[in-house]
Amino acid sequence: MQRKSTLRSSTSALIIKHRWLPGISTLACALAFGGAVVKPTHLYGLLGTAAALACACFVWGYSARAFKGIHYPVLLHLPRRKYAEVWDSLAASPSLARSAACGPQSESAVRRSAEIPVKNLTELGGVRPEDDILEIGCGVARIGLEIAPRCRTWTGVDMSAKMLACATERLQGTSNARLVKLHQVGLDEVGSNSFDLVYSTGVLGHLDEMDRWRYVKDGFRVLRPGGRLFIDNLDLESEEAWGAFARDSNAAQELERPPYSPRFSTAAEFTTYALRAGFIKIQAHRRTPLVIVTAIKPGSAPTQ
Fold it and tell me: What's the pTM value of the predicted model, to 2 decimals?
């Protein structure tokens, strides 16, 4: 069953990436058919026609299935922590990058999908006109495009070059935004005491737990005194997230999980990271199905 599912996913992904395959298979079928017409008694011509017809039907059938929706490649050959390779594979084109980031592919749908995360961020994390803001795992700048006009500067960091390429395209004309490619887990490319708000939304669930901790710890370093932290993930303790977790557990108990499949969190996990990193005024907020933790770096915020 797993092998069959992997074949379906791989075939659909191949057709989505190489959209010329249905046309080529049809051309091959036509050529084989022409050869059979010229030499109708030739055994090889008849066999070629049958094979090409079967191939064409197979490819067109899978193309119809693939283009109905996005079928992500399983990527079981990649370990979870190969973040750059995993997300570059999912972001083979701008439309696939948008889909991998949030589901919808059209620009208008991507912008609508950002409304609730932006609302949570502005209400709980605070977004001020004088802020320098950093997003960890910015992807296609789904959130950054909405946040940049509301602050002094917005910086997005990510490990996927293809996600950042899509973000660059979406941020054209946004003069106060910049993008930074991370070369390993952590914020080594970002200077200390540089930001007023560091946030990550919809990303930490795709990371190993120790890597989540690394980003929270580095977030503390790059924040100025008085700076704010905002992180979220699916809340294992919420009814909605637990229902999804239980369904997936029952359906995929014997299967390997794709490296991009999300892992849920709890308020205790996130507050522990924030406390151990040195934050104060740590608060857990529940906005189903999310758990959101906000915290502040000790010290007074500089006068603007």
Answer: 0.77
